Amino acid sequence: MKCFFRNLIANNLHTCAVLFREVPRNLKGKKHSSQLWLTRQLQDPYVEKAKRENYRCRSAYKLLEINERFKILQPGHIVIDCGAAPGSWTQVAVKATNANAVQKDAGGIVIGIDKQPLYPIENATLLGGMDFTAAESQNELLKILNGKKADVILSDMAPNATGVRDLDHENIIQLAYSALRFALQITKGNGVFVCKLWDGGKSQQFEKDLIRFYKYVKCIRPEATRDESTEKFLVARGFKGIKSTSSSTT
Ligand SMILES: C[S@@+](CC[C@H](N)C(=O)[O-])C[C@H]1O[C@@H](n2cnc3c(N)ncnc32)[C@H](O)[C@@H]1O
């Protein structure tokens, strides 16, 4: 019996931390906010899972759930990942689009961009240290696309949170519109746009703007989104093009 339990624990060390709700030690001298962050990280099953499955962070499970539900990423797709650091969405996109040429299907192209440095991910093109909202960054993306249009534009971009809910909402909305304006220029017919928002007063208008350009717009709060977060994702599918609609977005 003892042996059975010893083996069970040895084979499931990663889950044990979660089962026993590990509490971090050596917190002395750390700020209260850092203590909370560390405790939460250690108790978070998605952090554990990401480590085990070699994703750079827990956010991977948000895109995996979105993709499971809406099947937005297909082999051969061209994907732009805005706000890509540290890189877990890019990792998911590389696999799902076959950019790593593991399957016989067509190989996709995945391009990630972030203000933060991006450490290489095999079979992805990464633009680290670049502000997506800057014209030069978007020109760089266009140069890489070389006249091709994208199937999927993802934006998990988030500003540094100030803790002031309205201000954080305003800042993320600005990023979301920047991603949408770019998506309108470079998305293939029937393409997809996925965008993160922190909910607030302008979410509804943003959703209405999406409905002008995409046939189907759904809002999803993935399982991996933390309870205390106002985060939600808008998944817009079936890009209609911009010819038949007026193109003004805020
Ligand atoms: C939640 S993280 C993205 C996590 C990423 N999806 C992943 O799975 O690894 C949000 C990212 O948005 C980036 N970001 C915020 N504003 C940006 C901007 N103007 N241009 C590019 N990236 C930006 C941040 O640097 C941060 O890395």
UniProtKB/TrEMBL annotation:
- Where does the UniProt annotation locate this protein? Mitochondrion
Q: What are the catalytic residues?
A: K196
Q: Which family does it belong to?
A: Belongs to the class I-like SAM-binding methyltransferase superfamily. RNA methyltransferase RlmE family.
Give the primary localization class: mitochondrion
The record, for Pfam families, names: FtsJ
Keyword list (alphabetical) reads: Methyltransferase, Mitochondrion, rRNA processing, S-adenosyl-L-methionine, Transferase, Transit peptide
Q: Name one GO molecular function term.
A: rRNA (uridine-2'-O-)-methyltransferase activity
Instruction: Tell me the GO BP annotations in alphabetical order.
Output: mitochondrial large ribosomal subunit assembly
The family database entries (InterPro entries) matched by this protein are listed as: RNA_methyltr_RlmE, RNA_MeTrfase_FtsJ_dom, rRNA-MeTfrase_E, SAM-dependent_MTases_sf
Any one GO cellular component localisation term in the record: mitochondrial matrix
User: Key word Transferase present in the record?
Assistant: yes
Checking SUPFAM superfamilies in the record gives: S-adenosyl-L-methionine-dependent methyltransferases
Species name: Melipona quadrifasciata
The organism's place on the tree of life at top rank: Eukaryota
Record has Transferase as a keyword? yes
Question: What is the protein name given in its UniProt record?
Answer: rRNA methyltransferase 2, mitochondrial
Query: Any idea where the Ribosomal RNA methyltransferase FtsJ domain is?
Result: 55-239
